[in-house]
Write a structure and sequence with these properties.
By secondary structure, the protein is an all-alpha fold. The protein has twelve helices and no strands. It is globular. The relative contact order is 0.16. Mean pLDDT is about 80; it is low at about 1-10 and about 255-265.
């Protein structure tokens, strides 16, 4: 792909690392620590711990992609992917606070699968009859549960999601509202065909965008570690390795972050 739209960002990664040599190593320390933690999830585990761990595994994959793009100075693409990390960490936090909604999160999967399979039937890709019947039953149950049919009175179709709450509402409920604009709204406008999202391709200061992306990624990793610690460590004080992750985070940014919730152990 042509790299010209990102010409404003060339050299930003190198310049940032020269000025802030401790930040990226601290981010990778948090990444590796969380990656080690999420290995505790058992295959197919569908309870709160399992779903939260899988969400964090997905977030780690996105972080890896973001850092790869950043080191090549492809900052618009990195910012777009910030939404993916934010949403996964946000949902994991929300489900921890509202564990009864884990079932809703999982049940909505049948609706997503049905939408995909309905659209690939024409090329001849179909499930075997037994699997198709099982999915249809799950989809029918999910549509009743989430009221996917249009209202006969007003003609409106309910939101196509496992929760009726929008992302901003979820963010407010789990103390991540301060990250909503940078990590969700702006990446959404960059992803979609908007004039707002097109202008940064030819303007903007990469020396501002890159630190903002890296700081947000680091914060979300720390929140992921905190969340996993709360779920799996059962109230135990953080160990030496976890403490090093928190210490590296604090030292890297020298207290400039505005983390929504800072436990007393930090």
């Amino acid at each position: 792909m042509p790299e010209e739209p990102e010409h404003m960002g060339r050299g930003a990664w190198e310049a940032f690392n020269e000025s802030n040599p401790h930040v990226v190593p601290a981010i990778w320390t948090a990444y590796r620590h969380l990656a080690g933690r999420v290995q505790r999830v058992e295959d197919g585990q569908g309870d709160l711990k399992g779903v939260a761990s899988i969400l964090l595994i997905g977030a780690l994959t996105d972080v890896d992609s973001i850092l790869t793009l950043c080191c090549h100075n492809i900052l618009i693409g990195a910012h777009q992917l910030l939404r993916a990390v934010y949403e996964k960490v946000l949902v994991a936090k929300y489900l921890k606070k509202n564990p009864t909604e884990v079932e809703n999160f999982l049940d909505f999967d049948a609706i997503h699968w049905t939408k995909v399979l309905d659209r690939i039937k024409e090329p001849g890709l179909q499930m075997n009859p037994e699997s198709a019947a099982n999915l249809k039953a799950r989809n029918d149950d999910a549509r009743k549960k989430f009221r996917q049919e249009k209202c006969k009175t007003c003609g409106r179709t309910p939101p196509h999601a496992w929760t009726a709450k929008d992302t901003e509402t979820l963010a407010k409920e789990v103390d991540l509202a301060d990250r909503y604009v940078l990590c969700f709204l702006e990446p959404t406008l960059l992803l979609h065909c908007t004039w707002f999202g097109l202008r940064p391709l030819f303007s903007g200061d990469p020396s501002i965008r890159l630190p903002a992306i890296l700081e947000a990624v680091h914060v979300l990793l720390i929140i992921g570690v905190m969340l996993h610690q709360e779920l799996y460590d059962e109230g135990e004080q953080c160990g030496a390795e976890t403490g090093e992750v928190y210490a590296a985070w604090r030292a890297a940014w020298q207290g400039s972050l505005a983390l929504g919730e800072t436990p007393t152990s930090l």
